[in-house]
Amino acid sequence: MHADSTLRADPGRGRKREPLPRDFYGRSALVVARELLGARLVRIRDGARLSGFITETEAYLGEEDLGCHAKAGRTVRTAILYGPPGHAYVYFTYGMHWLLNAVTGPIDFPAAVLIRAIHPAEGIEHMTSRRAGRGFDGPAKLTQAMEIDGADNGLDLTRRSSCLWIEKGISVHGRRVTTGPRVGLDRVPEPWKSKPWRFLAKLA
DNA sequence: AGCACGATGCTCT
DNA sequence: GAGCATCGTGCTT
């Protein structure tokens, strides 16, 4: 049984199985975070497709946002956030985890969308074995399942040659979207701590 | 079902 | 040297 069978097909137009274009990412991280719900995250590994539908995202918006890494300004680590949209920002945290973001908005405005969870679709066996059967709902869980790490930092998500991109997936109706405060920002001051910039999709 | 905690190393102060 | 956009285990309820 294929996981796709539980999800309705995308009725929208536009080419599927093609990386989303640069202008998709060139908008506000808030818009991109919402629009990425239901999109298909694709990873090519050993010539095979691993993919999953994005079910949870968070937006991080500029130097003013004290939850965003760019709050410290332009550094070696955050330089990618100031570059063109549509690139991967992959960073290491808690001494062992890699987290995947998509850079958004115009050049010189540091913003990104964190991809926090996927509903697996292709290459499930491969991803499950990477996870020892422990699931994909968590930003470090999906990177482990898809073998995404620091080597992927800066990749252009609009190019197939990156072996990492995002495609049009299924459309997620507004009724199935919920928002809330971003996770893990306990020591971030208000109002940033409580901004409802986390987006969750209930699929099928 | 929920909380506390340790693992483990990079980044910025 | 402190803090971290987390996870899995183990213990309590």
Number of helices: 4
Order of helices and strands: HHEEEEEHHEEE
Task: Tell me roughly what share of residues is in helical segments.
Answer: 10-25%
Radius of gyration: 16 Å
Number of strands: 8
Q: Report on the biggest sheet.
A: 8 strands, antiparallel
How large is the share of residues in beta strands? 25-35%
State the separation between the terminal residues, measured CA to CA: 15 Å
pLDDT under 50 segments (min length 5)?
1-13
Shape, principal axes of CA atoms: globular
What class do helices, strands and sheet pairing give? alpha+beta
- The average pLDDT score comes to 93
Task: Output the keywords.
about 200 residues; alpha+beta; 8-stranded antiparallel sheet; DNA-binding
Descriptive notes:
With about 200 residues, the protein is α+β, with helices and mostly antiparallel strands. The chain is built from 4 helices and 8 strands, in the order ααβββββααβββ. Strands 1, 2, 3, 4, 5, 6, 7 and 8 form an 8-stranded antiparallel beta sheet that branches. The longest helix is centred in the N-terminal third of the chain and has 7 residues. The radius of gyration is 16 Å and the shape is globular. The N terminus is likely disordered. The protein binds a DNA duplex (13 and 13 nucleotides) through strand 3, strand 4 and helix 4.
